[in-house]
Amino acid sequence: MEEKLLVVENLTTSFHLQNGWFSAIEDLSFTLSSNETLALVGESGCGKSVTAYSIMNLLPKPGSRIDRGSVLFHGKDLVGLPEAEMRSLRGSKLAMIFQEPMTSLNPALTVGQQIAEVLYYHNGTSKKEALKGALELLDQVKIPAAATRLNDYPHHLSGGMRQRVMIAMALAGRPEIMLADEPTTALDVTIQAQVLALLDDLKRELKMSMIFITHDMGVVARVADRVAVMYGGYLAEVAPVENLFANPVHPYTEALLKSVPRLDRDINDLNPIPGLVPSIDRMPKGCRFAERCEHKIDVCEQQMPDLTSISDAGNHSVRCWVRGAQATSNGESQA
Amino acid sequence: MSLFPKAGGLRRTIRDTIRVFNRNKTSWAGLVLLLFMVSLAVLAPWISPYDPIDQNILERLSPASAEHLLGTDHFGRDILSRILWGARISLSVGTISVLMGMAVGTVLGILAGYKGKYWDYMIMGVMDVFMAIPTLLMGLMVVAVLGPNLVNLTIAIALTVAPRFARIARAPTISIKNRDFVEAGRAMGFSDLRIMAGHIFPNILGELIVMGSLWIATAVRIEASLSFIGLGVKPPTPTWGGMIREGFQNILSDPWISIYPGIFILITVLAFNMLGDGLRDAIDPKLRNS
């Protein structure tokens, strides 16, 4: 079995609301291998970003906490790691890029300064060498005329360029894992495609692993090796990307795939999922998707199903009373 | 965003600042007056006609004449020379005390704004106490405790200025710390110190500079006031405030002894205020974009 770079086990993170602590992600377990891209998918409010912030230990404090579980990076638990040690991992071994390239760069510093800062902060290079390194990084993220861009301020750059700069900053520490929190959501579709291609190239070139957070199934199909579908803070289904698209088992996954708009269909044929993700202080007792589910049976509203493996290869698991049982009894495994 | 005119980056801000500064004739007048004052102070040893502490009893209390352009005081010292030498003290005390107060106040303000919670309560609580004490009274207390001399005078003024800068620095820090680029900095593994000094400070520098220029005017005035009531620089070192006080003994018969240094204080304060107003307009994004 290949080495697991990151092992998340039973991770539970809670937030404090007026009337107590409520979990935003619960009992989350997944793994990430070297050179693998895992997509975390789900609609707004399902806990994707909280997962990333929990891994990076960047949750806003006070007001949130990790209740249980562990995040093993190279076998070392990041939960409860002293802040100083965590800080030396952030930006070097673990890097993160954000959704909003327009505001994620400091408006008062040049692009070069900002990239160079990461270099001399984590690698201890001299400022002069760091600037040279920044130039190489700008080249690496394919920014044209990188040498002149070095002295530009963020407002001189377009959204796509800024996201490239953010990626360059994230790459500066030679990360083993890149967490990308909806990195293309704020960009035009054409720019999206370029940035995705860039991330894909870089991942291969630098042998990084990536956790890619998105709600866009089209993006998932493009970048992911494996997909983890989240709903209401729980994992609903985990599968290799081909399996998931060919054979979505969880009703939520199915609904997500159906709701993707397609050019070859009329706009009226869009299939939105009725209802909203319940907020974290109003989670139902049983399966959290039950009230929006077309296939629910009595037990769904009573008890949360377990995440059970449904394929022989053990790489496709699902958390559903109806579909999970069906899939296992039919011996339906396409893996 | 409107709070942060620096959004365009430092270099562009400077360029835009100069552009708007150019639009305002008063700010140029302030700058010219100020440069004139500074050059007088710098050149004092060469351009002052007499030694500022040289007494000449025979020519005491003489009005303006060809030998003594602004007359002499009750010790027969040349008033013009004393004003020129006094400019060095007044301007340097004003500038240095504000720079000191600005440094201390900015550090505390950013710390309070960034760390929040008890840091904020503690620091701003102390600052509020300091601010509750009238400027002159604060100067009085410090000088009374430490003794009247140039260094203590500077410290006293710095202490009254620091809380103002703490407030100016704290408010934008609170809103900047919630911006995405600070979060991104944290995700890059930067320490709090680096985020405060390297990422928040450059974004509030413009506002601090403007406040600084306005407060130097006040500091020059405070120095004059403290010297006037005898808590400033010890005689015979000439300072503007001290000269006004010394002239008071003969205010009815020979008022010019007090009036001339008063005019210089007036011009300097005016120059700093005009400059500060111009700078404030220049970094105000609403005016800058118009």
Description:
The complex is a heterodimer of chains A (335) and B (290). Helices cover 32% and strands 23% of the residues of chain A. Chain A is α/β, with parallel strands linked by helices and 335 residues long. Chain A has an 8-stranded mixed β-sheet, sandwiched between helices. A 4-stranded antiparallel β-sheet of chain A has the order 2-1-4-5. In chain A, strand 4 and strand 5 form a beta hairpin. The longest helix of chain A is centred in the middle third of the chain and has 18 residues. Chain A is globular, with a radius of gyration of 21 Å. Chain B is mainly α and 290 residues long. Chain B has one domain: MetI-like fold (Orthogonal Bundle), CATH 1.10.3720. Helices cover 74% and strands 0% of the residues of chain B. Chain B is built from 11 helices and no strands. Chain B is elongated and about 75 Å long. The N terminus of chain B is likely disordered.
Principal-axis shape of chain B equals elongated
Helical content class of chain B: over 70%
Q: Strand arrangement, largest sheet of chain A? A: 6-7-8-3-9-10-12-11
Which class best fits the helix and strand makeup of chain A? alpha/beta
Alpha carbon gyration radius of chain A: 21 Å
How many beta-strand elements of chain B? Answer: 0
Specify the oligomeric state. heterodimer
Helix/strand order of chain B = HHHHHHHHHHH
